[in-house]
Structures are given as structure tokens and as C-alpha cells.
Amino acid sequence: MTEEMNREKLVSLILSKLSSKKEELKRDFQESIHEVGVRYCFLENLLPEEIANRIQTVFPKKHEMRLMDSFREKKYTSKNFDQFDPILKDITFAIQDKRVIQLVEEITGIIAQRPDPSLYAGGLSLMVKGNFLNPHIDNSHEMTRTMYRTLNLLYYVNPNWSLEKGGNLELWDPRVKRSVTVESKFNRLVMMETNPWSWHSVSPIKVNENRICVSNYYFSEISPIGKEYFNVTSFNGRPEQKLRRLYSSVDNMLRNFLRLMKRDGLGKKDVYQNSKV
């Protein structure tokens, strides 16, 4: 079976599953704003179990990925799809298919969304024991700063996961004082909006198991808050991490200032450069 046919099969499966739960997801997404002010929803069993298991089985090992290690986060990432089983590229870009985006628009009510072939901040993610992602808001735009980031789609393929293992998605109120937890459950797709107050994090991994995720973002020329804004990815500490909260705020201000001074940033951008997606 060709690469295109493989991806087409995945797109068809995703569309079928989303369509079957469309009204439920639509309701959940809108009602969730009353929890901490961030709209989100999740869909169980996105793909047939044998396909989800295959994605998990061929997922790259940590030595094949890039380590992101700072006071802000510790995790492994990769966009080097040509080095891995084609199904990893297929599932990533199936979620960016225009038909999937259109259906997600109907679910979320967020219009004029676009895919991101460069996978700016997206791609494959792996976390092991002790890894974490501190509370943060995502950078407001894609690489060219012509489109706003509107939606984060997270597909988890770590089998037999449970809340006690850590590594779960946390959504925070605007002051990063109160949160709700969404379990990083196997074969679950989470959709959450991104805006200047959509603080979220991943709790530290507590077990010697891999927490693995396929991450995608959608973008739009239309601001999700109805007016222009800009921010780099900005971090905070957890409520009990008072010192980390203090120097995170200083770090955020400095990085925002540098990006405003140098539009393209100072470092090399981690993007997917293969135009055939």
C-alpha cells in the first residue's frame, strides 16, 4: 500500500470517529470554559487499537530524539520522519488534512484554521521518568508571524497509562493557581484552544515508562481574541514553585523583548523541512 493510501485510510478513520461524536465534542468544548477558562475536549479511541499499537511500537527511542532540557521543560522531540516508520508521518499529517480541519472547525467553532506543514512546535514527543513541562502559554504565531496559533491537538499512544503515573495534561486558570487534569490516556485525542491565557503543562513522569504523544497545531490569520497580540512561549512555575515563578517572569520578558527586536529570533528554528507532506 502506498504512503498516500496509508494516510488516506487514517484520515477516513479520524473523520468517521470525529463525526460519530461531533455533537458531544462540540458541547464539551464549549462547556469546558467554565472550569479554568480554557476550552478543550477529548475523544477516546481515535483509531482502531491495532493501528494505535503499531504507532506506539514504532515510536522513536529517546536516543533518536532531541533532548529539550531547562528549568522550563525536560522532554524529547523529533520531526525526523524520514528516519522512522512512515506511519508516524502519516498520522501526524492526517490530523492536518483539510477535511479533518474542517470538521474540527465545526466542533470548536474556531473558523478559518490552517494546517502547519512546518510543524512549528509540533511533531513527536517522548517523556520518561522525571521529565516534565512547566505551565506555559504557547507562542502566539507560527514562524512567519502572519498567522495566529489557534488550536493544539494532542494524540497519546502510551499504553496502560493511568493518572497516578504522572505525565498528564494540566490546564490552568489565568493566574496559574488552579488546574484541571486530563489523563494522557492511550489512543485519546485532546483538542484545546490556544490564546494569551491558555496556560497548560505536563505533570512530572513518576514511573519508568514512556509517555508518547503526536502533537499538532492549527493556525489562522484571524486572532482568536479579536485583536492583535504577540508573545513567545511563556513559562511559569507551579503554585508552590515561588522562586521559579519569579525568574520565569523575568525570562519571559527578556525573550519577548529579544523577539520584538529580532523578528526571526536568535536560534535556528526546529521545523519540518520536507515539502512533500
From TrEMBL:
Listed InterPro entries: Pro_4_hyd_alph_FE2OG_OXY
Matching Gene3D superfamilies: q2cbj1_9rhob like domain
Domain Prolyl 4-hydroxylase alpha subunit Fe(2+) 2OG dioxygenase: 127-218
Protein name from the UniProt record: 2OG-Fe(II) oxygenase
